[in-house]
């Protein structure tokens, strides 16, 4: 069984949601990809801040 | 010369006082009345609560900052407001009780021309038997609401980790300690940080972890949930939150009102009316918030507290308090200027203003117990409201009432950014970075989800984690009024 599939069997609630797989998890800590996302998130946050003032 | 008195030195009060000081000439006085000697960057209390930061890293002394800025600082707790003055004077004033070591218990009256109530909340631990007494935390659970609470929480967590290392299983119960709590986000972040620390210590398999909250669904966050852009989809925060818990093997119990807390045990009732018990070895339960209990008196000395304050103790402002049933609620019910409708020289900012109603759908169980999150007003909204109020008050003081158009900062036109970390390391922590726009959904403007899905998004990863670190340093820099502080947004 794949690692991400283990928790689905533990509880009914868990079985009805989504759990990230190996690729999605690796992207969360991939420094290059996260640096790109860092710029994107900051940009979006700045827009939200400017729209809020 | 006119005097502005700001009650409270938290995010909102500090923002109001510091901007007012910057914008007002030296002929006007700005006074901050706060019972605390230190300013606290509360979002980082989470890291203090897991032993990853010290109290000193999230707090600093207010007196030096205020003295350098030219703000008069009174370390005292406001007790009452007399907005009409007293028998022999029309000048409004507040009464305060000093809390510094030197003047503890001393009562002083302070006249004002303009008053901003930014006291923040009373941490109402006493609302749940066993959770605490009044605003004092009890001995059965821990808290991360203050830096001192967080230090205590980290010591208790360390003890549990030691026990697990010796082979003793531990049960963790984290969430909200009452059916009317807000601030689910803080507990949400804390449980993920604990889980991260347990993994780091190699004892995760010895821990049973459970989330308990008054939300009717996971991811409500007191905002009725939200729909956000994730990976090209528009996703309900329910799915987003459930996924985070399932991935980490954290069970959840929702729609819960905690009736009683005892040593190692809570009793609760759910939205469907069923009752139950949960045991724990370590528990952090957020208390409900209430107003700080300020009283108000008219010129004749008669109690007019109910004229100025809502029954929950928060100050009435320009909100629509008679909106009625949930079906009638509108974004326009929410206040814009935060001016008290009775006394125009009084404003409330941050948590201290009385919201017109909930944001989440009101819920009550068959036993008649309301179980629903109350609206969040912390963080970014608190700062933005504080700045708008400072702008209005400064204009009133310098241009006069007839030449002033009050500045507006409705939570229905305002977004919020929230970063919930899991861990603290630069390369091994992750965070759920979320923005929501607007905080209060506006179904007339955004008929689909009530919010702009271009600017309501969520993402998990290192990027959010870096942002959390940057925000910690930026906001402490800003609060210390270091060079360029005005360039850092609220």
Compact summary:
By secondary structure, chain A is mainly alpha-helical. Chain A is built from 3 helices and no strands.
Provide structural commentary.
The complex is a heterodimer of chains A (53) and B (490). The mean pLDDT of chain A is 91. Chain A has one domain (3-52). The termini of chain A are far apart. Chain A is built from 3 helices and no strands. With 53 residues, chain A is an all-alpha fold. Chain B has 490 residues and is α/β, with parallel strands linked by helices. Chain B has a domain at 3-123 and 289-403: FAD/NAD(P)-binding domain. Chain B has 10 helices and 26 strands. Chain B has helices at 11-23, 45-48, 55-58, 62-69, 147-165, 184-200, 237-247, 305-308, 380-399, 462-479; strands at residues 3-7, 29-34, 38-40, 59-61, 72-82, 93-98, 107-111, 114-117, 122-123, 132-133, 136-137, 170-176, 207-212, 227-230, 233-236, 251-253, 256-262, 265-270, 275-279, 282-286, 289-290, 295-296, 346-348, 416-422, 430-436, 457-461. In chain B, the strands form 8 sheets. In chain B, strands 1, 2, 5, 6, 7, 8, 22 and 23 form an 8-stranded mixed beta sheet that branches. In chain B, a hairpin with an 8-residue loop joins β6 and β7 (107-111). Chain B starts with a strand and ends in an 11-residue tail after the last helix. The A-B interface holds A 4, 7-8, 10-11, 13-14, 16-20, 27-29, 31, 33-35, 37-38, 40-42, 44-53 and B 239, 242-243, 245-247, 249, 251-252, 380, 384, 387, 409, 413-417, 427-428, 430, 433, 435, 437, 455, 457, 459-464, 466-467, 489-490.
